[in-house]
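chain below, 201 aa
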Amino acid sequence: MPQRNSTRSSTLLIAFLMFVGDAQAGTVCTNGVCFTCDGSSVCVNGSCTCNGVPVGGANTQIQQGPCGGQPTAIHGNGGGTVATAAVVDASVYVSGDSAVCGNAVVSGSTRLLNGSVVNGRAHVSGQSSLDHSTVNGAATVSDSALSASVVNGSTRVLRSEVVSSTLNGRSVVADSVVTGSVLNGNASVLSRKVQGSVLNN
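prediction:
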């Protein structure tokens, strides 16, 4: 374990930032350690190899990633973090400060921007856009735009725009615009606009 002092932490931070700047599609992170490999990379119980050679020394850096201890890779389209257990199409844009974690599936021309995160078993598809938003659990987002919002549980958002809102439970939003609102339980918003409301069902 590295000693935790300010000089060491500063050195690691600077080294890590330089490392991330040079990261390529072959970068893998596990247990807070990242490395770049041009070929076959394997990690078991936190010990990794690149082309069969143990990884360590100057090419590894300490990282506290958005997916916790999950093994991750750098997504080729945007440079964001993607868990190796997640499925993310090459057509999906994941900005450098965004992440797809867990067993999430992201497809189509979806764009993750400004620190957006997709977690759990969530599905995001079509021409969706997440801007500073988080999708958790088993939620589904399709052909929709989320901005500064959180979607939890088994919520479904279809062909809609959600701004500064939190959607929980088994909520359904379809062909609608939801702004500054909270939806809980089985609340549904269908083909209408909702602003500044709390809907429970």
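Residues 6-21 form the longest helix (16 residues). The helical segments are 6-21.
thats it, cya
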